[in-house]
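Re: that chain you flagged

S.,

Sorry for the slow reply, it's been a week of failed gels. I finally had a moment to sit down with the sequence you sent. For the record, here it is as I used it:
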Amino acid sequence: MSNELSPTDELQALVEQLGARDTARAAQTALAGTGEAGIAAAIWGLSHPNVRVRRGCAGFMDHHGTDACFEPLRHVALYDPAPSVRRMAVHSASCQECKQCPLTGDLVGLLVQVALSDTNRRVRLNAIWGLRPPPRDVRAVEALESILREADPNLRLDTYYTLMDQDPNYKGDPIGLHVQVALSDANRSVRLKALWGLRRQPSDARAIAALEQILRTESDPRLRGYAHHALKHQDPSYKAAYDAKARERGIAEARTRKENSTVLRKL
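Prediction finished late last night. Pasting the structure tokens below so you have them in one place:
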């Protein structure tokens, strides 16, 4: 991507300050204050050789982007070599709430392309999140169904929930999906989300078996804790047995405290 005209030296300096944490906020304010010239300078900065500057320029467009920014953001989202820059470009193109006027380009087309083809999981996730409606679009539904069939468990839950938003009639197999992700080698945060989701699903033998397996074999205390609470929801007999043991422990501890108190009074 290239620009025919370069901004003034002053605007170039502000653009480069977008790439430094301690100067970015002031630079954003100053650049926004220059109006269309500031927008043009930020677009120019999307081609800067410094990754942080490119990311800062894409981030500037989150709040200050106009329709003139959409095609440059699209190009960056698809072709910038740095995942952090692509991810920020996807966010700035799709986050309409922060802008004075929503961008009017083919956002769904861009997000579908990124969600299907980017090589970085976090960039793909940002595109998937951006597909939550409005608007509903058949291209998004088809892309999400395709991603849902993928093997990568780190993407499947977010894809499922986005697909539910895009197509309210979609049913799928939510319990099977949550079980597969919970038992997978996905990131811990993703597995925890799957276990939390099983607390909101109706009782199912597949979920009970999976949760019991996690409690038997998993060493991570947070995963075990989430599995325990999910199993209490899924299996009433497990909850009843656990609660009964808890009551027995409470009675035994109360008895011990009473006996110790009696001994101390005698002393």
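What I noticed first: Residues 236-266 form the longest helix (31 residues).

Talk soon,
D.
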